[in-house]
Amino acid sequence: MSDKIILEVKNLKKYFVMKKDLLGRPKKVLKAVDDISFTLKEGETIGIVGESGCGKTTMGRSVLRLNDITGGEVVFNGETVADIPARKLRKLRTEMQIIFQDPYSSLPPRMSVGQIIGEAVKVHKIVPIEELRAYVLDIMGKCGLQPHYYDRFPHEFSGGQRQRICIARALAVRPKLVVCDEPVSALDVSIQANIINLLEDLRDEMKLSYIFISHDLSVIYHVSDKIGVMYLGNLVELASKDDLFDNPLSPYTRTLFSAVPAPDPRKKMSRIILTGDIPSPANPPHGCKFHNRCPECMQICKMIRPEFYEAAPNHFVACHCYYRHYELHPYEPVSVPPSTLYVKSRKQG
Questions:
Q1: If you write DSSP's letter for every residue of 266-294 in order, what string do you get?
Q2: Which of 66, 200, 247, 262 would you call most buried, defined as having the most Cβ atoms within 10 angstroms of its Cβ?
């Protein structure tokens, strides 16, 4: 992994207008992504985890400029993505790719595998036209697809093979950044392992950077270098995978970990049961968005939104449990060493 930062996401926001007034002005908006910031190095993988509807996919699509952003900034290779004119956007498309969640609906049924993978290669002129077939076959080989699949159609393949075709299509244009939008969620466990190992091998071979979106914490831990936890459009915690799994700071992160089933059926699980309803992103609660479900809610949580604070080296969290509230300095950091606030390590039981 290189030290070069390939992607910077600064205060990213994506709002969808749900209702307008008579003059066409926004009257009600849905805050799908609300002030998210992180960086990604070349060859690094950041895992994004959270409940359904928390904005993970919208965040990934906004980074790729598949959605126009409402606010903030996405900087890719030193260029602000939103400022790139349409005539230069085609080059950006070869450098930033996405692997969609559903391998059944994301492939055109009337095109053969060779046409699906080779279409973007031909449009972007990645290789001369006379070398196209050989190039596509080489990409297929790297993704575990046999040469005789070239003239076959998507309906002839299983889910795992279709996902390999999706991966080959994304990698055929030689990208630097790939957004993996739950690429293994529709597959059984044995196929999941094959696809994850394939993605890791291709990352090392082609020096790719991944934004890996998933619900599965075990998958996220296996593939990621660092992990961001999202809730209702916000990042509530961001840290390296070992720091996050050893010392989850946010009450929401601890809740997610408590829901992971134990491999030993005789082991008693300590589940955290949340109360209250999941808020709507169109009408989020005032203050901390998690306060109406949080077992550690304080009065300040209902009034003031917590800032994203570095509670430990390279371990960021948005939670009032790690601040001491003063009248003049409401966000002065807690003076007690952070280790005294950490929960017990999962590895220690």
A1: TSPP------SPPPPTTSPPSSSTTTTT-
A2: 247
Q: Are 153 and 122 in contact (CB under 8 A)?
A: no
Q: How far is it, in rounded angstroms, from Cα 65 to Cα 100?
A: 15
Domains of the chain: 5-224 (3.40.50.300), 234-340 (no CATH)
Q: What is the pLDDT of residues 67-114, one digit of tens each?
A: 889 999 999 988 899 888 888 888 888 899 999 888 888 899 999 999
Q: Minimum mean pLDDT among 22-36, 60-74, 114-128: which range?
A: 22-36
pTM of the predicted model, to two decimals? 0.85
- The two structure tokens encoding residue 203: 């990352």
**240/226 Cα distance (integer angstroms):** 4
Return the DSSP state at 46. Answer: E
Instruction: Count Cβ atoms below 10 Å from residue 277 Cβ, excluding itself.
Output: 8
